[in-house]
Amino acid sequence: MIPNLNLVPFVSVDHMMKLVLRIGVERFLSELAAYVEEDFRRWESFDKTPRVASHSADGVIELMPTSDGRIYGFKYVNGHPKNTREGRQTVTAFGVLSDVANGYPVLMSEMTILTALRTAATSAVAAKHLAPRDASCMAIIGNGAQAEFQALAFKALLGVDRLRLYDIDPAATQKCVRNLQDRGFEIAACRSTEEAVEGADIITTVTADKQYATILTDNMVGAGIHINAVGGDCPGKTELHRDILLRSDIFVEYTPQTRIEGEIQQLAADHPVTELWQVMTGAAPGRADARRITLFDSVGFATEDFSALRYVRDVLAGTGLYQDLDMLADPDEPRDLFGMILRAGREGSVSPG
C-alpha cells in the first residue's frame, strides 16, 4: 500500500515503461496473467456491464467500469484506426481504481501500454486452457502495436517459440521482426496470410481496420487449430469468415458485450458460446479433443483492466515509479469546502480579485 490518503498515486507513460523494464516484460506478462485468471475465477463477484461506447465515423471512445464490491475500477479508452496515418496511436487509455467504502480514488494510471499488456496476457490465459497441448508455433496476422506483446505473452505462458508473421504493410512486419530479435523466437516473415498460417498451432488475428473484413477464410483453418481473434472489437468490425465460426467451439469473455462487438455478431443471437470463466472454474469444458477448432473471440472486458490496475498497484510500492496527484479536497472540516479555498488564500500569495 502507498501511504498518504490525501494524494493519489499516478503512473505516467514514462513510469509504466520503467516499471515494465524493471520487472522484465515476460515476468510482467506472467504475473499480470495470474491476476487476470484469478479475477476470472471469481467472476460472479463482479458487477458486469457492456462497455459504454460513443461511436463516430472516425472511431470510438469507451468507458469500461466494474467492481468486486471492495474496489471499483474503470478505463477510458479510444479506438481510432486512422490515427496511424496521422502519426498517432490507434488506442490510448487511462484508468482509475477507487475504494468502494469511501469512493476515494487510490490509483490513476496510463493504460495505453497497460492495455497492450493486459490484452496479450488475457489472450495467453485463454490459450493456456484452449490451445492444443504443446503448441509451439503461432501465426500473427497484423503486426502493429499489439503484435510483440502477443508473441511475448504466448512465449511466457505457453512456451511458443516459433512465429510466422504477416501484415499488409511489410514495414510493420519488419518492425515486429526487429523488436523480437534476440527474444528467443524463430521468426518467419511471410508474404501472405495463407503462407503465415502454414504449420501454425495457434493463429492470432490482430488487425486494426474498423470494418467487416475477412482476414481468415474457411480453407485456411485446419483441424486442431486455436484461433485468438483479437482485432474485431466493435460493431461492424470482424476478421473471420462466418463459416469458421460455424466450425469452431467459441469462447468469450462476457456474452452480452461480445454479441455486439465480437466475431459472433455475425451469428444468430442464440448461437451457443462458452464464457471463459466457466472453463477456468471447471463449470464447462475447454478443448474437447485434439481435432476441434477453438476460437477465443476476444473483445476485452472491464475485469481485465481491473486486474491490470490491481497488479500495478500491488507492485508499485517501493519503486518510486509514480507521482502523487493532489486530487482530493482536504478541508479542515468536511463540510467547509469554501473555507478551504479561503485558507489557500491566507496560506499562499493569492489575493482576492
From TrEMBL:
Organism domain of life: Bacteria
Enzyme kind, highest EC tier: lyase
MF (Gene Ontology): ornithine cyclodeaminase activity
EC numbers: 4.3.1.12
Keywords, alphabetical: Lyase
Name under which the protein is recorded: Ornithine cyclodeaminase
